[in-house]
Amino acid sequence: MIKYNHSKHWKIWLLGILSIIPILACTGDIENGGAPLVGPAFGLAIIPQGPQIIKAGTQIFTSTGGVAPYTYSLNATTIGTIVPVTGVFTATAIAGTATVTAIDSTGAIGRTTVTVLPLQLVIDPGSAILDAVGAQIFAATLNTAAGLVVCSISRDNPSGTTAMPTVAGGAAVCTATAVAVPAVGAASETFTISIYDTNDGDYGSAVLTLMAPPAV
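Predicted structure:
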């Protein structure tokens, strides 16, 4: 009786498979112009992640985990520009956040964000007091000529009872109008007025204090 050597047969089969793999790989290289075949890259990441920079500043983005070369793009060119080949981002004079995308040679994609920080507006006066119904004008020194401000107001003491002043924005000024003041003998109340430049994203704030009228 002839015994069948399973172990020997398994080794021959394995050697046959291993000998085919290099042939297939070489065939693929030949069809690809002699260059080695490169599969899709995974885990492509952009460095740094989520940077914050000042206006007119620059930031260099690089990539890792993919297959060079990389191509960079930006989804919001109002806040800056990016060089597709080098990943150099240059901020404009507009504050805001944009998405940076990198694509490697295999089509893998990585993303991050870049934030251009706003500047602090100078507000004149920085604080004011009203002891009677009336208006107070706050002027903002804008960093761009085409600025137009919007205003908002918040109560500093949530338990306050004096009616909230109204605010209205215009070209570089915010007008706060007190519709009431605390009664004689009552404590004063403060409000924070926020002023935002719609053109470039810069912002500032001032404090308005409402006081009781002087006793007569």
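Summary: Confidence is low (pLDDT under 50) at residues 17-41.
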